Structures are given as structure tokens and as C-alpha cells.
From TrEMBL:
The lineage of its organism: Bacteria, Bacillati, Actinomycetota, Actinomycetes, Mycobacteriales. PANTHER family: IRON-SULFUR CLUSTER SCAFFOLD PROTEIN NFU-RELATED (PTHR11178). It comes from Mycolicibacterium aubagnense. Residues 189-294 form the Rieske domain. The keyword Iron applies. Coiled coil: none annotated. PROSITE patterns: RIESKE. Pfam families: NifU. May be involved in the formation or repair of [Fe-S] clusters present in iron-sulfur proteins. The keyword Ligase does not apply. Keywords: 2Fe-2S, Iron, Iron-sulfur, Metal-binding. This is Rieske domain-containing protein.
């Protein structure tokens, strides 16, 4: 179980860096002493962690409990004490996000993990197909890359190996390549602990990073979309989940134009007369360090405009 203060400790590194930067105002000597202090504290708990891992060498079940805790695992990685190699950590991380990838009609396999002069190089292969539009490729890319880099910070490059395409579908790997070519500005993850309060089959709107989003929960899975109908482009405020005859997956019905969207499979419109352009815009949502977080794309600003 995640500790209630995981969100606080997840940002501890940023707060420490802010304090170090602030110490520079008192001069280089003060900054140097502050860095030495942080280094001494880090070395102290690092030595304690090393002794703990040595004592647990004959107790693999306890070691697994430690490595399953995101906060403890991150500290073990900092000090080079994590008992699992990079490939094992990457495989475990992808297992955690695989259900989310499945909701977008895809899966991922690790082809190879190789050491290089600048760090580890990972080669991946995607299976299946994206069941909506290129916009959901952003979700896949962020999900996989974030999981890998959190579990294996020594990874310097992630390469997607092309899979054999299937007739009539858009391969996931080609969509990811399209994302890279578009040169997107990137995304920032924002904690959204309020999403944990959603009940099964409940739909709710919330504001995050200045944008209105729509979230719904189905069992243990939470899906987030931008508050914009893929058909009438109006707000989805008041939308609810419905079950269509002959389908096990619930759909979200726009309260204004009554279009139906599959929230489990990347928000595609499932109406008979739907076009490929009529879809919801999925937003990545993952449990990061025990806290539900949403990735919001950074909007690039024009030169000279703040």
C-alpha cells in the first residue's frame, strides 16, 4: 500500500535543489557548505541502506517487499543498491502499465537491454494496434517512457523496433515515430489524488494545469480525457456511462449530440456513422510513486512571448 505522504516525498528532490539554489545568495562558500551537508546526509542513509540490504540477503521475500515500494526502490537506485538488474526492473515496470497499454489496443515487449558508453540502451517492440487515432500515441509514448526511466534511470536511449504491420490498422510503433517527428514540446506530470475518490462507473470533471478534464473509473482503472466531444466539440459536462446492447465495454454518451465513445479503447466513437476524426482526446494517467498523476502536454510559446 502506498503511504499517504508519497506525493510529498516524490517532490523532495526538487525542494532540496531549491534550497541549495537559495543558499547561493549568501555566497559561494555558503553554497559549498550546503552541498557538503546534503552529501553527508545522503551518504549516511546510503550506508544504512547498504547494511539493511546486506542483512536481508538471505530473505528474498523481504527484499521483494522493499523493491516493490517506489520510494525505497528509488533510494536504492540512487546508491546503486537495487538487487535487480536493469532488464528485470524494466520488465516489472512495464507489467504495471501493461493494462493501460491494453486499453489503447497495444502491448510492448523488451527486445534487448545493452550497456553503452552513455548509459543503457533499450530496444522495444510494440504489438497490436492503436484503436483510435494518432493522438493516443502520445499516451503510449509517455506511459512507456515514464515507466522505464523511473525504474531504470541509467537508461539513456529507448528505441522502438518496427513490428510487422497488420492490414487495415495503424501500427503503434509507426504512431510513436510520428510523435517524434512532430517535435512535441513534451509533457509534465501533475499529481491528481482526487481521482482516487471516483467510484466504479462514475464520471467526473476536474481542473488541472488550467484545463478542464473528464475522468471515469471502471473497476481499478481510471481513464482521463479532455473535456471536448469528438463530434460536436462541445463540453462533456453531464456525460454518463452507458452499456450498449451486445457490448461488454461501457460507452460515454455526449449529453448534447448523443454521440457514443468507447472510454476503454482510447475514446473512439462507436456510432455506425462515425468517422476516424470523431474521437475523444485521451490524456495519460498513471500511478506514479503511489499517487494517481496526469500528464499534461506543455504548450510551446511564441518567441518573445511569456
Amino acid at each position: 500500500m502506498a503511504a499517504p505522504d508519497d506525493a510529498h516525498w516524490r517532490t523532495a528532490g526538487d525542494r532540496i535543489q531549491t534550497l541549495l539554489d537559495a543558499s547561493s545568495a549568501a555566497g559561494p562558500v555558503t553554497r559549498e557548505r550546503a552541498e557538503l551537508l546534503v552529501g553527508e546526509v545522503t551518504d549516511l542513509y546510503g550506508a544504512a541502506l547498504q547494511r539493511i540490504m546486506r542483512l536481508l540477503a538471505g530473505h528474498p521475500e523481504l527484499t521483494e517487499q522493499l523493491t516493490d515500494d517506489d520510494l525505497i526502490a528509488s533510494l536504492l537506485l540512487v546508491h546503486g543498491l537495487h538487487p535487480h538488474d536493469a532488464r528485470r526492473r524494466i520488465e516489472d515496470a512495464l507489467d504495471k502499465v501493461r493494462p493501460y497499454l491494453g486499453s489503447h489496443g497495444g502491448d510492448v515487449a523488451v527486445v534487448s537491454v545493452a550497456d553503452g558508453p552513455g548509459g543503457a540502451a533499450v530496444r522495444l517492440q510494440f504489438a497490436g494496434s492503436c484503436k483510435s487515432c494518432p493522438s493516443s500515441a502520445v499516451t503510449l509514448e509517455l506511459t512507456v517512457e515514464d515507466a522505464i526511466r523511473a525504474a531504470a534511470p541509467e537508461v539513456s536511449t529507448i528505441e522502438v523496433v518496427a513490428a510487422e504491420p497488420k492490414t487495415g490498422v495503424i501500427p503503434v510503433d509507426s504512431l510513436l515515430s510520428r510523435v517524434h517527428r512532430d517535435g512535441r514540446a513534451g509533457s509534465v506530470w501533475h499529481p491528481a489524488p482526487e481521482l482516487a475518490d471516483l467510484k466504479h462507473a462514475e464520471v467526473g470533471g476536474f481542473r488541472l494545469a488550467g484545463e478542464t478534464l473528464l475522468a471515469c473509473r471502471l473497476g481499478e482503472n481510471v481513464f482521463v480525457y479532455r473535456d471536448r466531444c469528438g463530434r460536436c466539440a462541445d463540453s462533456l459536462a453531464g456525460a454518463a456511462l452507458h452499456r450498449r446492447i451486445g457490448s461488454a465495454d461501457p460507452v460515454l454518451r455526449c449529453p448534447r449530440c448523443h454521440a457514443h465513445f468507447d472510454v476503454v479503447h482510447a475514446g473512439i466513437c462507436v456510432d455506425d456513422n462515425a468517422t476516424a476524426a470523431e474521437h475523444l482526446e485521451p490524456v495519460p494517467v498513471l500511478v506514479r510513486d503511489g499517487v494517481l498523476s496526469v500528464a499534461m502536454e506543455v504548450t510551446p510559446t511564441a518567441a518573445g512571448v511569456p
